[in-house]
Amino acid sequence: MSQVPEPSHLGSGITSDSVLRRFFSYSFSSDECYKQGLAGILTPDVLRGKSDAEITELVRRAKVFYFNRTFEQNLTLEDVDTYQQALGINDAVPGSGELSITYQEVETPVMTFAELKTLIEQGRTGDIPNNRFIPESLNTAPPSQSTAPARKKPWETIQ
Questions:
Q1: pLDDT in tens, 30-85
Q2: Among 18, 83, 128, 130, which is most exposed with the fewest C-beta within 10 angstroms?
Q3: What is the dihedral of CA 110, 114, 117, 121, to 10 degrees?
Q4: Do the domain assignments include residue 66?
Q5: Domain contains 148
């Protein structure tokens, strides 16, 4: 069994391998937010003509991006590769559930105008694919404060 890399061997200034352990132990397949994002990335148009290796790379990049955004980390693909090689983790093929979930969520039925009209007349707008409810009220959150300095007028610039 190979040795886990020391923190000094990892790029991006990561000081411990606990972040990488957390990354590899995270259950991406049970995270609904991740699965929805992955479905948006792996559309049939994107996957057309891609090899398994290219699809695996897209999934890996999505996992690293999502993990960094969710847990406010700075992992890089190189960090993940180094750790993965040191532990001998095989990530050649994405989880069989990931791509099947992606295809199911991406493929929405094409509706005819008559079907759409019938659903609206029956009040079943929730059954219309890609239909979102947009509230008719304004956002009640206070506006954010500007942090950018005001632009200088042309006569205020120093030449």
A1: 888 898 888 888 887 778 888 888 888 888 999 999 998 988 888 888 888 888 88
A2: 130
A3: -120
A4: yes
A5: no
| Number of domains making up the chain | 1
- Residue 114: what pLDDT? 92
Across 57-80, b (16+ Cβ under 10 Å) vs e yields ebbbebbbebbeeeeebebeeebb
What's the one-letter identity of residue 157? Answer: T
Q: Residues 94-126: pLDDT tens digits?
A: 444 455 444 444 455 678 899 999 989 999 888
Range of the domain at 14: 7-106
* Two structure tokens written together for 20: 């990488």
Q: Would residue 101 count as lying in a domain?
A: yes
